[in-house]
Specification:
heterodimer, A: mainly alpha, two-stranded antiparallel ribbon, 9 helices, 4 strands, 70% helix, B: mainly alpha, 3 helices, 81% helix, elongated
């Protein structure tokens, strides 16, 4: 009994279906349209429709249902922004982008767990749907857009020269300033990849774990994969929250210039009432 | 020891993957344990510290990335 289980891992005759890269559905003028792109279009259409309906039903005293959940999510992300930036007005200014990226990632993760997504529906041998966040191209695009938005917000907030001085802080005749500045710029590029890889690996490995356990279960596949689907529901929301939380942290780091100024020590001392 | 490993034949790939998973998951496991330890200590001393659970999850996600990289390499290496 046990040896058959071990053999199933050891010999790779017909293991669980594990895909790390998306499959191409069809080609449109030389651009290959993959199943994750198709899923992203479906997902974003659904989100736009849902959010427009919810925005029309918005009231001072919501009756409940879907509207309430969307409002809770929006309020939650606004709270995260308020904590990160330390200002309600600024939080409301930047909320539209961060709330929409939160809902996009959360919906894409949760809809990716639906039964129709994956091997069930196929088109010319390739599965029709694949979760958008289970594709490195998708998450890389999301994190590149997040970084561009963060830089744009920071430049708008403090001006281009002052934003550059945020990286190249210090005396300009000092060569160390440029070295540290280059390191800071490189750090921003690394953040793009760490954001993208974290989201992609969490979602893709969740799918792999579900497929491995439904393969091991054989006839009892629904039973063995059920707990992991619940686990993935939690991970889906958590990863959306972490993506937004980290981008808000990067934004707040880029916007605040406290450590650039020489009198920062005095101002903190004044705040503390010393 | 190394000469014994060098003379192994058969499905050595599985041994390598198992070693990679086992050793690679050690670090992140210890790391997440330390984070949880520090958090529970802080909450034990000052119950108001429990409001930082969200930030703890962010740090867990940062450490978790290393474990996920190990797990993903399982499917990438040949």
């Amino acid at each position: 009994m046990l040896s058959s289980f071990i053999n199933r891992f050891a010999t790779e005759d017909a293991g669980p279906s594990v895909h790390i890269a998306p499959a191409q559905l069809f080609e449109f003028k030389g651009i290959s349209i993959t199943n994750s792109m198709f899923f992203a279009w479906v997902c974003s259409t659904l989100i736009i429709i849902l959010l427009v309906i919810v925005a029309k039903r918005m009231k001072l005293r919501p009756k409940g249902g879907v509207t309430q959940f969307i409002e809770i999510g929006t309020d939650f992300i606004t709270g995260v922004l308020e904590n990160g930036l330390g200002d309600r007005e600024k939080a409301l200014k930047y909320a539209p982008y961060f709330v929409s990226i939160f809902f996009f990632i959360a919906f894409s993760n949760i809809l990716g767990l639906l039964p129709g997504v994956g091997e069930a529906l196929t088109f010319k041998g390739a599965p029709v749907f694949r979760a958008f966040t289970a594709d490195l191209n998708g998450t890389l695009a999301a994190s590149v857009i997040a970084m561009i938005m963060i830089q744009t917000f920071a430049v708008k907030e403090s001006g281009f020269i002052k934003h550059l001085r945020h990286y190249f802080a210090g005396k300009l005749w000092n060569p160390l300033t440029y070295l540290v500045g280059l390191y800071e710029v490189f750090n921003e590029l690394v953040r793009i990849f760490s954001l993208a890889l974290r989201l992609f690996l969490n979602v893709a490995i969740g799918e792999i774990i579900i497929s491995v356990f439904s393969y091991l279960g054989k006839f009892a596949a629904p039973l063995t994969s059920f707990p992991f689907i619940f686990l993935e529901l939690g991970v889906a929301l958590l990863q959306a929250y972490i993506f937004v939380m980290l981008s808000v942290t990067y934004l707040s780091l880029a916007v605040t210039h406290g450590h650039d100024e020489a009198d920062s020590l005095e101002s903190t001392a004044k705040e503390m009432g010393i | 020891m190394l000469s014994i490993i060098a003379e192994l034949t058969g499905n050595v790939e599985v041994v390598g993957k198992g070693l990679m998973l086992g050793i690679g998951m050690l670090g992140p496991g210890i790391g997440i344990g330390l984070i949880g330890n520090a958090f529970m200590n802080a909450v034990g001393r000052n119950p108001e510290a429990s409001k930082f659970l969200g930030q703890i999850l962010v740090f867990v996600a940062i450490v978790e990335l290393m474990a996920l990289l190990v797990f993903a390499s399982l499917f990438i290496i040949k």
